[in-house]
Design goal:
Blueprint: H1 35-42, E1 52-57, H2 63-75, E2 82-86, H3 103-118, E3 124-127, E4 132-136, E5 149-152, H4 157-166, E6 169-170, H5 178-194, E7 203-212, H6 216-223, H7 226-231, H8 237-242, H9 266-274, H10 278-283, E8 287-289, H11 291-303, E9 308-313, H12 320-337
Parallel strand pairs: 1-2, 2-5, 5-6, 6-7, 7-8, 7-9
Antiparallel strand pairs: 3-4
Helix pairs in contact: 2-3, 3-4, 4-5, 5-11, 11-12
């Protein structure tokens, strides 16, 4: 899964060697590749790997253009590509003069348009508040068995309903516990049943940032580094309250969805990073520990319904050694879960 970002979650004012060794090699955290071009480059070389974007949004990208790009990728891969799609994040929207209001309503219309594009057999007609198609053509078809799979990045009640109505998969990031995962998956499946769809046909997935060490003590020490603590600022205020803390950006702060990294000064961020409770990292939406501990934790999510996990080893921010081990550990964890 490749990401679709214009900005990183790390603000420029703290992007230095005190944060991460990567600052020696990259002068900015905001140099992201375009996902469509990048997937086009990767696709002929992917072999049996399944490729996807996790996730794009329908504010910067028109749903017809999104559909065309994924149908194009489907021509040159061996497996159906995954279209991860959600309401978007403010850091990729507001600085570029785009409107972040009514984003869930916009996503609902976009999902209807994307579905129509993937199944089109003639001219497309659609009249909505945000999108309009009049005699529109999308005649590009995926090869047999390679129609792109729509995974909806949903967390709130309304977007969870959209995942059930329109998604082939549910792809959350900020679900912290197996209990929360099971409850939200039940909402997705209930919405699918209400829409006359097979709820068991929806892939329950999860994106999980990982901090994996050779020992539990090593992993815990990485949690206390500046880079990993900074990631705690992207965790919603509700998680902070659950562990007895208060988010420095407000109790109702919605985490990554509304984080604007370039709007804060160095001193404000320094204070905020120092205020991150260790419990936000150990009990929040972060997978940490040894590979064996990670496997046990993921099996708990498996008992809650999880069937496909995408691991992102952010421990690579800590050191080159941690980066290498994080990649090796990802393979170890994957094989253990097969």
């Amino acid at each position: 899964m490749v990401i679709d970002h214009l900005q990183n979650v790390f603000p420029s004012v703290i992007w230095d060697e005190q944060l991460t060794w990567l600052a020696r090699r990259r002068w900015t955290p905001h140099d992201h590749l375009d996902y469509q071009a990048f997937l086009g480059y990767l696709a002929p070389h992917a072999g049996r790997l399944q490729l996807g974007v996790g996730v794009t949004d329908t504010i910067r990208r028109h749903p017809v253009v999104i559909s065309q790009s994924l149908l194009t990728i489907a021509q040159v891969t061996r497996r159906a590509p995954i279209l991860g799609v959600g309401v978007g994040e403010l850091l990729n929207i507001a600085p570029y003069g785009l409107d972040y209001t009514h984003r869930t309503s916009r996503l609902e219309e976009a999902l209807q348009v994307i579905r129509a594009c993937l199944n089109a057999t003639g001219p497309l007609e659609f009249t909505g508040r945000y999108f309009r198609l009049e005699g529109a053509r999308m005649d590009l078809r995926a090869p047999r068995g390679r129609t792109p799979r729509i995974w909806v990045a949903a967390h709130g009640p309304r977007s969870l309903t959209l995942a059930g109505r329109y998604g082939d998969g549910w792809y959350p990031t900020l679900v912290a516990t197996p209990e929360e995962y099971a409850a939200k998956l039940a909402l997705v499946r209930g919405a699918a049943s209400a829409a006359g769809r097979d709820p068991d046909a929806i892939t329950p997935a999860l994106h999980r940032f990982t901090v994996i060490g050779r020992t539990e003590a090593e992993a815990r020490s990485m949690l206390d580094t500046r880079a990993i603590r900074a990631l705690g600022l992207a965790v919603p205020g509700q998680v902070w309250r659950d562990v007895g803390g208060r988010h420095p950006f407000g109790d109702d702060y919605n985490g990554l969805a509304e984080f604007l990294p370039e709007s804060y000064g160095r001193s404000e961020l320094d204070r905020a990073i120092a205020a991150v409770p260790m419990e936000v990292l150990t009990r929040g939406p972060l997978l940490w520990g040894t590979p064996e501990q990670a496997v046990r934790r993921l099996r708990e999510f498996g008992d809650a319904g999880l069937r496909h996990v995408v691991l992102a080893p952010v421990s690579g921010l800590v050191s080159p050694r941690a980066a290498l081990y994080g990649l090796l550990a990802t393979g170890t964890i994957a094989h253990a879960l097969e």
